[in-house]
Specification:
Blueprint lengths: L1 H39 L11 H8 L4 E8 L7 E8 L5 H10 L12 E7 H17 L5 H5 L11 E3 L10 E3 L3 E5 L5 E3 L18 E5 L31 E2 L7 E11 L4 E5 L10 E4 L8 H4 L5 E6 L8 E2 L4 E5 L7 H16 L7 E5 L3 H6 L1 H7 L5 E2 H6 L3 E9 L20 H11 L19 E5 L10 H11 L2 E5 L7 H9 L3 E5 L15 E6 L5 H14 L3 E6 L16 H4 L9 H9 L8 H14 L3
Helix pairs in contact: 3-4, 12-17
Length: 625
């Protein structure tokens, strides 16, 4: 009986022991989950006396949307920007993005994931504007205001603190990183300047143009401010610099700066001192100051210049300048008169003319012979001696300016487009500047029957390596027979520009086979005529873009003489019926090297004199009163 009673007593105890162990396991799991939650999200509040459920929901990491948008201002190639935006708790950002996306957007929202969608610049602007409007309507200004904070393009990879209205809620926003890729050669890069990482990144390899830029602002520049400093908090905002550089142009990247600017010549660095940037968190850009940014071969010859802003360490000035600086390279393709003008002199005039001669020219990749050749034009643009960046660097000099422009503003080949010029300049303004700088006397051609008895003068450019005019003597005789005084000139890189300019300006017409020598048309008086002889091979488009359009923009008459198969020596190199005769433009897909070697440098020309005489008569007719 005792043994049986003891068994009945131990049975309830065994059940209670099992319940205690089960309760311990449940309690342990709860503690483990709580510790895991707090360790994974340290800034989240695990419990809220008002709404524990809402607090736990708020502790979860919000989803983000990665937006792939196409820039409409990038030309035909287009730039692609990737914006990373965290999702708001209330779903207002999600709703605004979905509403603004339209037909182009395919958005799927999944918590703790990043979704890719495609949209245009206009749609992205609308999506950014809606959260800002929601912030104004929101009474507490927490969720919506945090997402639409108008910061001034923080450097990629850095972090900034959002508005902190109280100690209850702190929001840390990851700065968006924008990656722009265009089908062109690397011409400029922008890298993060966070103190804990190296300043700068290696340039992207290959033919693609890779630029790492800051997040575009979502408000007008004059309204943008820095977010409050982490230590300061409150409502204090510091005004930060607008973007230092513009990468939108298809020919060149321009950095236009004002303020305390220090040029560390030894490092080829321009430092803009900006207290709002902090000790090491300002903007950082790299540019090659030459307007052929899509040409990898060319841009590889150009010295890279770094432009950055800082609120901390800056080099000490060894010389201060009252005049602004314009920085450019005379490397690249210079030495060819076409590129001397199209890549340097015309863009330099467009950029520096506004300063009325009070501008300091800062040059990279300097060649002394080039400075001597174009000395009069350079002196007409600036009354200060040019500054050689490499020489100043070797001397350890730091030059300080109040204004600086790095790189040149370039439009089309040899053309200044008035609608794109900040000063309303156009191509005739440049040719007028050249005539004044070189003291060229004629602003109009000779007119037939003007009573002077002077014959109009026609100059033929003689090439001596490629694209030779084989029957030059016959062309000269034909010109004299119709009534011209004919002159022959060999354009050479070593020719004195003043002497060449005086000779060309004395003429009323210029004739030559497609090539750099036709650039001498800049010295012709307005109203004169340019005749371009275009080699066989479907090169009309190139001839028109390089010389035809510029000639008309300069106020010249233009005639394009297109060579027939029988006038080209290609007929002696390829069999009849070859594709080079039947469909030459289809061969252009082989690339520019094929065009240059085969269609440009691979043929000489003997014009049909009888056919060409009609062109000479048309030129003469252009000179009639």
């Amino acid at each position: 009986m005792k043994g049986g009673g003891g068994g009945r007593l131990q049975q309830p105890l065994r059940v209670e022991s099992q319940r205690f162990r089960l309760l311990s396991i449940v309690g342990g799991c709860f503690v483990f989950c709580l510790v895991f939650l707090l360790s994974s999200r340290p800034d989240a509040t695990a419990f809220d006396t008002v709404s524990p459920r809402a607090s736990l929901e708020g502790a979860r990491r919000p989803a983000a949307v990665k937006t792939l948008r196409t820039s409409s201002g990038a030309g035909s190639g287009g730039d692609f920007h990737v914006d990373v935006l965290p999702q708001q708790q209330g779903g207002s950002l999600r709703q605004s993005v979905e509403q603004s996306a339209g037909d182009k957007t395919a958005t799927e929202w999944v918590r703790d994931t990043v979704i890719v969608e495609e949209r245009s610049d206009a749609e992205a602007s609308e999506a950014a504007a809606e959260p800002e409007e929601a912030a104004e309507r929101d009474g507490d200004g927490n969720s919506a205001a945090a997402e639409s904070n108008p910061d001034d393009q923080p450097a990629p990879g850095t972090r900034s603190r959002g508005n902190e209205p109280g100690a209850e809620e702190k929001k840390v926003r990851d700065d968006a990183t924008v990656v722009t890729t265009a089908a062109a050669q690397p011409a400029a890069e922008t890298t993060a300047t966070a103190p804990d990482r190296p300043e700068g990144k290696p340039r992207a390899a290959g033919g693609g143009q890779s630029k790492l830029q800051e997040q575009p602002a979502r408000q007008p520049q004059e309204e943008r401010h820095d977010e409050p400093a982490r230590s300061g908090g409150g409502d204090h905002h510091r005004k930060q610099l607008p973007p230092l550089c513009d990468f939108s142009d298809f020919r060149s990247d321009i950095c236009d700066m004002a303020g305390d600017i220090r040029m560390d010549a030894n490092a080829s660095v321009f430092v803009v001192v900006d207290p709002a940037s902090g000790a090491g968190g300002g903007q950082w850009h790299r540019v090659r100051p030459y307007p052929r940014k899509g040409d990898e071969t060319c841009m590889g010859r150009i010295t890279e210049v770094t432009v950055r802003s800082t609120g901390g360490d800056a080099p000490r000035c060894t010389r201060e300048h009252a005049a602004p600086a314009v920085v450019f390279s005379i490397g690249g393709y210079t030495g060819n008169i076409f590129h001397d003008f199209s890549d340097v002199l015309v863009p330099l005039y467009t950029t520096a003319h506004r300063y009325g001669g009070d501008v300091q020219l800062v040059m990279a990749n300097v060649a002394s012979w080039w400075l001597v050749k174009y000395d009069r034009l350079l002196h007409a643009l600036s009354r200060h001696a040019p500054l050689d960046l490499a020489r100043a660097g070797a001397a350890g000099e730091v030059h300080c300016f109040r204004r600086a422009v790095v790189s040149l503003r370039a439009h089309k080949e040899l053309i200044i487009e008035r609608e794109r010029s900040a000063d309303g300049l156009a191509t005739p303004d440049f040719t007028r500047f050249v005539r004044r700088a070189l003291s060229l006397p004629r602003d109009a051609p000779t007119r037939l029957g003007d009573g002077t008895g002077r014959k109009p003068r026609l100059l033929v450019i003689s090439r001596h390596r490629t694209r030779l005019l084989l029957n030059l003597d016959a062309v000269v005789r034909a010109a004299e027979e119709v009534g011209f005084e004919a002159v022959v000139n060999e354009s050479d890189v070593g020719n004195d520009i003043s002497q060449v300019g005086a000779l060309i300006n004395s003429c009323d017409a210029l004739v030559g086979v497609h090539g750099a020598g036709l650039t001498n048309m800049v010295f012709l008086p307005p109203g004169a005529t340019l005749v371009q002889i275009v080699p066989w091979g479907g090169l009309q488009w190139m001839a028109r873009a390089d010389y035809g359009d510029p000639a008309e923009a300069m106020g010249l008459r233009y005639i394009q003489y297109e060579v027939a198969v029988g006038e080209s020596t290609l007929k002696d190199k390829f069999p009849p019926g070859h594709k080079i005769f039947t469909d030459p433009t289809s061969l252009h897909k082989k690339g520019f090297m094929f065009i240059r070697q085969t269609l440009m440098d691979g043929q000489d020309i003997a014009v049909d004199v009888g056919r060409f005489r009609e062109v000479l008569l048309q030129v003469l007719n252009n000179l009639s009163p």
